[in-house]
Amino acid sequence: MNNGSHHHYSARVALGIRLKHWRLQENRKIAEAATLLGVSTSTWGHWETGERLPSGDLLLAIEKLTGLPLYVLFCPHLETCPQARSGQKPTTGHPCCQRGVHPCAPDGCP
């Protein structure tokens, strides 16, 4: 099992990748995405680069803005789960899933 600091770093990186991917899919500049969420451009930029994590209230706002559940935003399966990487819910039979449930979901696979 990873120690706390490594896990925290992985969470920041996963969130940053997903935020950037969402923003680019929406064809938005950082300033536009930040304005939609009510934060500064530098704050959004720090999230995308994995330098910082948003607070709990902002995480819920990000989830609402992007339409991506928190378990997808923080999914550590960056390389093995293309659906998580793109922000789509994995389908049944995908290699990173069992029974069609995303492994990071609360009822996900062990």
For the termini, the CA-CA separation is 14 Å
| Integer count of domains | 1
Query: What share of residues are in beta strands?
Result: under 5%
Give the name of the CATH superfamily. Answer: lambda repressor-like DNA-binding domains
Gyration radius, rounded: 14 Å
Summarize the main sheet.
Answer: none
CATH topology: 434 Repressor (Amino-terminal Domain)
Uncertain spans, ≥5 residues at pLDDT below 50?
1-9, 89-100
- How many DSSP E strands? 0
Could you tell me the mean pLDDT? 74
Provide the structure class.
mainly alpha
Under CATH at level 1, the class stands as Mainly Alpha
CATH architecture verdict: Orthogonal Bundle
User: What is the H/E order?
Assistant: HHHHHH
Describe what this molecule looks like in 3D.
The structure is a single chain. This protein has helices spanning 4-25, 30-37, 41-48, 56-66, 70-73, 82-86. The two termini are 14 Å apart. Helix 2 crosses helix 3. The chain has 110 residues and is mainly α. The longest helix is centred in the first third of the chain and has 22 residues, at 4-25. The protein has six helices and no strands. The protein has one domain (4-86): lambda repressor-like DNA-binding domains (434 Repressor (Amino-terminal Domain)), CATH 1.10.260.
